[in-house]
Design brief:
By secondary structure, the protein is of the alpha/beta class. It has 6 helices and 6 strands; from the N terminus they run E-H-E-H-E-H-E-H-E-H-E-H.
Length: 185
């Protein structure tokens, strides 16, 4: 599959992805890419964020499935929404640095309903990219999520949270890994 064969839906986390973030850069590069916009990026509410993702997936063209590209808290939105989505509408999900339940629970601006995160198999193929130095979740936590979700795990090494602050503006390695994943769909 090529990016032009799918609706590429970017699912950012808390605070959205700023102008230098790899999600924003990729969204501008990919002609079929669009962001799942949220009403309040600073105070995420699970039901609202899941509803917006489900709406955006429903907007995907009938002849084109969606590929979800989630970062941080956006991963939890994907997993919570998965049971509400017809699997044939999703070609796959590319999941980057999901936070641990403890990290999410420690942030008072985030709706506590985000945790515990469902530990159930996703009904579509997925790749989870994890960092060994993510301040919001350990590599072991990411491995457990990947196993529960049926995701292929990719070890990004010492990569922080894979965001602008950790030096991942354009993140070309991530884009190449996305292309590899799309070829399997």
């Amino acid at each position: 599959m090529r990016t032009s064969d799918a609706d590429i839906l970017f699912v950012p986390g808390l605070g959205n992805s700023g102008p230098d973030h790899w999600q924003t850069r990729w969204e501008k590069k990919l002609s079929t890419g669009r962001r799942v916009e949220q009403t309040d990026w600073e105070h995420p509410r699970l039901k609202e964020w899941v509803a917006r993702l489900v709406e955006e997936i429903a907007r995907s063209e009938v002849k084109r499935p969606a590929v979800l590209i989630a970062h941080s808290l956006g991963n939890l939105v994907v997993v919570h929404a998965a049971p509400l989505i017809a699997p044939r509408k999703i070609a796959g999900a590319y999941l980057i640095t999901p936070p641990s339940d403890a990290a999410v629970a420690a942030l008072p601006e985030i709706d506590p309903d985000f945790v515990p995160v469902p530990m159930i198999p996703l009904p579509f193929p997925s790749v989870l990219v994890a960092s060994r130095t993510d301040p919001y979740g350990s590599f072991a936590d990411a491995q457990a999520k990947a196993q529960a979700w049926g995701s292929t795990i990719v070890d990004a090494g010492d990569a922080g949270h894979i965001n602008t602050e950790s030096g991942h503006g354009p993140w070309p390695d991530g884009l190449m890994r996305l292309a590899t994943f799309l070829k399997t769909l």
